[in-house]
Amino acid sequence: MRFASGADLLNIDQLDRNSGWHWPVPPRSGVDARTLELIDSDGDGRIRANEPIAAVKWAGALLKNADDLLKAPAELPLEAINADSAEGNQVQARLRKPSSKGWARPVPNPSAWRKPPMP
Fold it and tell me: What does the alpha-carbon distance between residue 3 and residue 66 come to, in Å, rounded to a whole number?
């Protein structure tokens, strides 16, 4: 299955889960451990279909352009966050604050979660 646009990806919850599609299973998914922890909303160590769907919808709602979910590079500029929403404004403000390790890193782009191409 391929998503042609961010809008397609945001409608992932409309797919019939019994039609044979699945979310890649870690560690082959290319998703780092910290991201998996964030997606695992109930903290049970398992990623169920509703959890990545919720993560995609949350990330898409925070961006000005949902197509950014499908683009490389692995990081998005802070300006990609929709600061017009209350949550987007909070996220952008938090990322602009200096941390003990220096300035906050750019926002990781979920498109980097895709499995790397096989050699």
Answer: 12
